[in-house]
UniProtKB/TrEMBL annotation, chains A, B:
Source organism phylogeny: Bacteria, Bacillati, Actinomycetota, Actinomycetes, Micrococcales
Family: Belongs to the MoeA family.
UniProt protein name: Molybdopterin molybdenumtransferase
Keyword Transmembrane helix: no
Record keywords: Magnesium, Metal-binding, Molybdenum, Molybdenum cofactor biosynthesis, Transferase
Function: Catalyzes the insertion of molybdate into adenylated molybdopterin with the concomitant release of AMP.
Catalysed transformations (reactions): adenylyl-molybdopterin + molybdate = Mo-molybdopterin + AMP + H(+)
NCBIfam families: Glp_gephyrin, molyb_syn
Domain MoaB/Mog: 191-327
Matching Gene3D superfamilies: MoaB/Mog-like domain, MoeA, C-terminal, domain IV, Molybdopterin biosynthesis moea protein, domain 2, Molybdopterin biosynthesis moea protein, domain 3
EC number: 2.10.1.1
Pathway involvement of the protein, from the record: Cofactor biosynthesis; molybdopterin biosynthesis
Enzyme class, first EC level, given as a word: transferase
Cofactor: Mg(2+)
């Protein structure tokens, strides 16, 4: 029973430590090649250059008539209609003095250099194929309604960089370039252990002094959303030897251990005690909530010890683990950061980076949900954003601008 | 081969039609009860009231000493230290004139009404349990560092409303309230069919006039992210009878059919032709890209016919299907909408709602990626936001404010 003196380290300095802890997990050997759809939510492991031009050939942007622009003088002219060009066909060269009905996306015939939309033609409809017909078209500049070959990306140009998060748009681009699979960074396997004699599984009887474990669900859901593979062990009691045994059993099968609770300065700090003899440091980060943090390794496996209150857990995950995963592995997608105006005043401990929970409205204001208390899970459940009050700020007024991360 | 005259309908009017089409799928009979973690990403199907107070009992917000505030006069006093209160214990009543070491989250002993943080005590450390000791404590107002019973939510109060998206925070709250499972809206089964003679599967040889299918990957990834169960059939050619056969075979097993391509005014519009005789309407929405849209039902199954360009597909999904799913089923989570300043000028067809792609920076500016062209998949892959230019706007200047949806 003793207190350790605590010097606060900054949020940035602790994030640097988390990055240094996890960086060795990113190796060039540890890359998976996955079919595109299975790669959804992963980080790209290599730079990818376009293997072809996009579009692969000049094509029409409209349903209309492909022409040689030089054939139509100012004031327009009548042209003979030749066979139509459907999308997917390889058309013959366009004879001089003719117009070819062409569909959106269809290849421009050789010689044609412009498309007149059907709406501008007289008559403004396509003739039946095979029947002799003419059409009157207005003068049209070369290039009009033509999508040039390579106008989206040229063959050989950088298409996606290593570390890019693979969402629908990125996977769509890979498909457009003909890829069927893609090398991605692995998904880390995490052992998640919630601790505390006061904590019982939801669904169990709730005795006096006890609370239901929400950290396990809150963090496992956050980790799954971030693409991690989570192993849960159930709740560990406050007996250090029991926790140490549990960690020793599971450590060989995971890439990272995350614990909650037991890292503070109280008399019964199970994670601190279970980690005795291991290379784990317990620090006080200048952050509210989520100040007490453990970091190091247990049996060679990286360990992060988050504090025990639910909001502190979530803030620890969002401030340290999630952004470092994004930096190192390209996934999950970074939280969108925006500027917003406070709907109300707030106070903050000036020596700490305060992270409040709030609701960002479309008009750019953010309303705080609940107070600063780290036990307020109902307030958390109403929030869609984290509100940052930087170190050195003691108070902000309604209307002041803050940085907000959208959850 | 003919053109149909097209009157444009507004984005809002078309979204209303999509909502009306899908609303019958939301019935009180069709609800699943899922374990909390499996409910991640679903919409809550019922209103949930708190079955208990949170916190369930008054507890300490700090590691420190629980006291009766009336025992300590101005200027402070020395109190006898009694047995400590660990988290999870049900403590005895606090004798008058004593202080109990108490850990964060531990139940306040009956009679105690304030906590003095360990840092303010003299000595500022906990005595070894069982050894007689006293501690000098400052005067402390009743309620200090006590989390009152029900201060987050009271038993019986509304906790989460029907239709709430279940993310980590909401599931964490349900766990804190003791729930192990939760009634949620179902995940719709979607048949996704990409069409077009010009479209070939990625990985196949690419003949002249052909492009790789990116719509299938782009939309399946978007749909999976939105929690839909997707069946893909491969690419249908431009032969209407082949598409009709394929739809007829799969329709009984799905809740919704989404097609891409073949809904425009060209000469070869396979979806239009395959839907002949079914209750499907082809309309022109006042939107760019994504104007041509099909909507109706095929063999009794709701159908949405998106246009064939990749960007048009994505915009159709994001503007019509995704927001309607959120409204009706509570999932996926709504796209965050924020105001941003344009980094550059743009022009827009004044009669249409233009949707551009862009990159939102943390300083609140948004840069456009690529032009308005709906074939620009590389530009789409660089974007993190949709930029809205409302109907009636022909031009915007750099610095003008726009609504942006974060992807």
């Amino acid at each position: 029973m003793h207190r350790t003196e605590t010097r606060h380290i900054s949020v940035e300095a602790h994030r640097d430590k988390v990055r240094a802890l996890l960086a060795p997990l990113r190796t060039d050997d540890w890359v998976e090649r996955l079919p595109l759809l299975e790669a959804l939510g992963r980080g790209l492991a290599v730079d990818i250059a376009a293997p072809l031009d996009l579009p692969p050939f000049a094509n029409s942007q409209m349903d209309g008539f492909a022409i040689r622009s030089g054939d139509v003088p100012d004031g327009g002219t009548e042209l003979r209609v030749v066979a139509p060009v459907p999308a997917g066909a390889a058309p013959a060269e366009l004879p001089v003095g003719t117009a070819a009905p062409i569909m959106t996306g269809a290849m421009m015939p050789a010689g044609a250099d412009a498309v007149v939309p059907i709406e501008q033609a007289v008559p403004d409809s396509f003739p039946a194929p095979g029947e002799p017909a003419t059409v009157r078209l207005p003068a049209t500049a070369a290039g009009t309604f033509v999508r040039d070959i390579g106008s989206d990306i040229h063959s050989g140009e950088p298409a996606l960089g290593s570390g890019t998060f693979l969402g629908p748009g990125q996977l769509g681009l890979l498909a457009a370039m003909g890829f069927t699979d893609v090398p991605v960074r692995p998904s880390l396997r995490v052992l998640l252990v919630t601790t505390g004699d006061e904590v019982v599984e939801p669904g169990s009887p709730l005795g006096p002094g006890k609370i239901f474990d929400s950290n396990g669900t809150l963090l496992e859901a956050s980790m799954r959303q971030a693409g991690l593979e989570v192993t849960r062990t159930g709740i560990s009691t406050d007996r250090p030897e029991e926790l140490a045994l549990l960690l020793r059993r599971h450590a060989p099968d995971v890439d990272l251990i995350v614990t909650t609770g037991g890292v503070s300065k109280g008399a019964y700090e199970v994670v601190r005690q279970a980690m005795a003899g291991h290379d784990v440091e317990f620090t006080a980060v200048a952050m509210q909530p989520g100040g007490p943090q453990g970091i190091g390794s247990f049996d060679g496996v990286p360990v992060l010890g988050f504090p025990g209150n639910p909001v502190s857990c979530l803030v620890s995950f969002e401030m340290f683990l999630r952004p470092v995963l994004t930096e190192l592995f390209g996934a999950p997608a970074p939280r969108p950061a925006v500027r917003a105006r406070l709907a109300e005043a707030l106070t903050s401990p000036p020596g700490k980076h305060q992270v409040r929970r709030g609701t960002l409205a479309p008009d750019g204001t953010v309303r705080l949900e609940g107070g600063a208390g780290s036990h307020l899970v109902h307030a958390l459940a109403r929030s869609n954003a984290l509100v940052h009050v930087p170190e050195g700020t003691a108070a902000l007024a309604a209307g002041d601008e803050v940085e907000v991360w959208i959850l």
